[in-house]
């Protein structure tokens, strides 16, 4: 994980955000191009890291993995250009949603198993194979046995708010009341240096909009 984060980061960035779609929202029997074309304006995954939701679709680099989607499905007409492989289909989608970002895409046919003791928190609109149904089954649905999953690690501007918020919280800390903390061997100078490094790291994730906000906050201080 550390090596992957290092691969996705450049320009002094070090942190990545995690996203996932569990299960990946696709109708039973729906080919991948059609499933992705349904999410041209809103990506089909949720932020897992403790950051505020990003206000725009942007990232610097990302690695995305889709599991549980059969590579042999037919390709109907869609908004995405024709591709020779499911990996290329996913890559083209990422390029459309995040133009200019460095992206890697992988598609694995093996789905994620959800057999016991995996918790059954799924809707009745999810089939045993983890795909969406048009309507709930009339009978008592069986437990979901597997699901397709889309997961991503992103070096993204959304991390700026997380890192800057952490810096502001630590800056408010009265170190004089933390005798046990410094008794463990941390020097005050080391703490201040780490604090400034955290602030510099948060600035590495700024885009033009976040940079303007940071300048306003600096002026108010």
From TrEMBL:
InterPro entries per UniProt: DML1/Misato (IPR049942)
Domain of life of the organism encoding this protein: Eukaryota
BP GO annotations: mitochondrion organization
GO cellular component term, pick one: mitochondrion
Coiled coil feature spans: none
Name of this protein: MSTO1 protein
Source organism (scientific name): Upupa epops
The organism's taxonomic lineage, starting at the top: Eukaryota, Metazoa, Chordata, Craniata, Vertebrata
Primary gene name: Msto1
